[in-house]
Amino acid sequence: MTRPLRVGIAGLGTVGTSVIRILDRQNEAVAQRGGRPVEVMAVSARDRSKDRGVDLSRFAWFDSPADLARSADVDCVVELVGGADGAALETVRAALSLGRHVVTANKALLAKHGLELAKLAEEKGVSLAFEASVAGGIPIIKTLREALPANRISRLYGILNGTCNYILSRMELEGLTFAECLKDAQRLGYAEADPTFDVEGFDTAHKLAILTSLAFGTEIDADAIYVEGISSITPLDLAMAKELGFRIKLLGVAERTKTGIEQRVHPTMVPRTSSIAQVMGVTNAVTIDADAVRELTLIGPGAGGDATASAVVADIADVATGTVQPLFGSPTDRLEKAPRAPMQRHEGGYYVRLTVHDRPGVAAGVATRMAEADISLESILQKRSELAATKDPHGRSGAPVSLVLITYAATEASIRSALEKISGDGLIAEPPQVIRIERE
Predict the structure, then answer these.
(1) What is the DSSP letter of 338?
(2) ACT domain: from which residue to which, for each copy (predicted)?
């Protein structure tokens, strides 16, 4: 009988325990896929006494995940500890150094140390698999690495954080504020007690860094990503987006440009008719623009124990086959060090919402500053306040009102320059809201 692949699982949270359940339930199917049985030999977690709903007495217990990685009874280490450094990094380094295969769901670790770990895996001739690190149960890593070699990818973008998508969906559909939706997301377990990593875009940025390397054959470069979160989005912005034919999503975007590979994470207006605009709630989606397949969109559960564990088990089955693939689709010495495309050179349409004083000449002053910066306006809308007590014969109250501009293609630098001058002219009562538009 073929010797089983002996697995050790470091980290027994929702995903780790789901991996054990799936392997118990699907062991025969996994063995058929991998060509040999898979046997969990050891586990590690911080609290040995915690009831996790699975029988752990059949496995060797390690208090230290790094000690589990060094065990001679383990061929493949599943790292589910989390974090870019500390125990997770020590565990993966230890496993690879000793010639153990590694399966991980740790996007932060890969975003920071991916190149180093890829080189180590290559030196030792072992797998470092990470399907579960991006978009949960969506097989986006396999798609980019294995299914699209005949394509030159020009752009990749997606909804990569379910927490943000849930919050924006609820805000739009129910007219709630960001704070109200965040509180509800925390109550339902969709958001952490400290939600900063999710709502300010850093989780999406780590995932985008991985996808960029796979899509464009470049060294992973998380520091090159422009990051902006969703905490400034208001119900008014969502209502205006609807009126203008858009929907607001937090997107991670990687794109080939004349100046290099552009990587950015920010709230984005997408046409309501686009595939990605239909993705609501905690669901994730990734769209790939390429020359042969044109547009390919993958949609599915981006988080959750079973969905993420499904990706982990798929990687374990691949490891069992004995096939070893380069981490980012190409050997590390062939990965390009792509020039960074500065965010100031980004070019596209913009939604700009200004809170201006409702008096003659304000709109003209704004339009003049935009024209001076060589920015063409596709539309301009003014939303007057109905709450003002007194108005002049033209319906103006002098109170702050919203002035919404939609621009044709303009650079980030020109938009920022124009807004700085508009502010200096005293035309706006509060900082402007700027949301980039991603066309189909």
Answers:
(1) P
(2) 351-436
Per residue in 272-298, pLDDT (tens digit) is 999 999 999 999 999 999 999 999 999
CB-count burial class (<10 Å; 0-12, 13-18, 19+) for 85: exposed
Q: What gap in Å lies between CA 80 and CA 102, rounded to an integer?
A: 11
* Rounded Cα gap, residues 348 and 363, in angstroms: 22
Number of H helices, E strands in the chain: 13, 17
Residues designated catalytic: 207
Both structure tokens of 294 = 């044109």
pLDDT band for position 387 (cuts 50, 70, 90): very low
How many angstroms separate the CA atoms of 300 and 283, rounded?
Answer: 6
Q: Round to whole Å and give the CA distance between 199 and 154.
A: 27
- Please check whether residue 375 is in contact with residue 369, taking contact to mean a CB–CB distance below 8 angstroms: no
Cα 233 to Cα 75, 178, 188, 195: the distances in Å are: 48, 7, 21, 16
For residue 358, name the pLDDT band (cuts at 50, 70, 90): confident
The answer to whether the pTM exceeds 0.85 is yes
- Rounded-to-integer distance, Cα 103 and Cα 315, Å: 7
β strands within 125-169, DSSP E: 128-129, 153-159
Termini Cα distance of the chain: 53
Gap between the Cα atoms of 207 and 205, Å rounded? 5
Task: Name every residue whose Cβ is closer than 8 Å to that of residue 118 and which is 6 or more positions away in sequence.
Answer: 128, 326, 327, 328, 332
Pairing of strands 246-257, 347-357: unpaired
